[in-house]
Design a protein that fits this description.
83 residues, mainly alpha, globular
Length: 83
């Protein structure tokens, strides 16, 4: 993670700071609330990619929604976010 980036900046483009969802989980400088915000942004991106793929609009390799939700549950085990 870039140390000078704010959470607001990271949320706008989470994959430029964290290549994988579990990298967010492992970030020691972030609060759980910040981790969840970033993971929610990643989940949004993954859902958008799924929609584009379903409409035959490919745009590159992305992280699976399953991986993002799994990372989110490791931060918040009570999370009820589903695919």
């Amino acid at each position: 993670m870039t140390t000078t980036a704010s959470v607001d900046e990271i949320v706008l483009d989470p994959y430029s700071h964290f290549p994988k969802p579990h990298d967010v989980v492992d970030a020691k400088t972030l609060s759980d609330a910040d981790k969840l915000r970033i993971l929610d942004a990643m989940a949004h991106d993954a859902r958008e990619l799924q929609t584009a793929s379903a409409e035959n609009m490919t745009g590159g390799e992305g992280v699976s929604l399953h991986d993002v939700l799994e990372a989110r549950r490791s931060v918040d085990p009570t999370s009820d976010v589903t695919q």
